[in-house]
Specification:
- The protein has 5 helices and no strands.
- It starts with a helix and ends with a helix.
- By secondary structure, it is mainly α.
- It folds into 2 domains: 44 residues, no CATH class; 88 residues, Orthogonal Bundle (Helix Hairpins), CATH 1.10.287.850.
- It is rod-shaped.
- Helix content is 71%, strand content 0%.
Amino acid sequence: MAEWFDAFSGGESASSAVDSVFGRAGVFGKDIAGSSGGGGGSWSFDRDQIDAVISQWKALLDDCQQDRMTLQDLRAGDAKPSDDDPSVSYVKDVLEGLGSVRQSNASMLAYIQDFIEKLEAARDGIQRTEDSNADPFTAAKAVFGQ
C-alpha cells in the first residue's frame, strides 16, 4: 500500500502513482511504450490487478476507520488536571484540534469509500463488456432466445 501512497504524496499525479506501482502498463494494462502520436498500443483487462488495488484501498479504509475509533477514545478522555485557566485552556485547545482531525478523517473516509465504489463499478463494467465481447453472438442469442 505504501508504494502508491509514497508516489502520490510525493507530488506525482494519480496516474503516475498508479504507474509507479504497476509499472508502465498501469492498472488496466494499457501498453503505453512508444504510444506517441497515432501509434498502436493496446488495452488488456487484468481483473486480478484491479482487485489487488481495490484490496489496498479497502485496507486503507480499515486503517482510517481504526483511526476514527482512536480519535473517539481520545475525545472521551478529556479530563483536565485542574480547574485553573491554563488547564482549561489547554484541554479546550486539544479538543478543538481533535475535532479538526476528526473532520479530516471523516473526509478521508468518504473519499476512500467513494473511490472504492468507483473502482468496483469500473471493474464490473469492464468485466461485463469483456464477457459480452468474448462471444460476438451474445446480443443475438439474447434477442432470439438461444
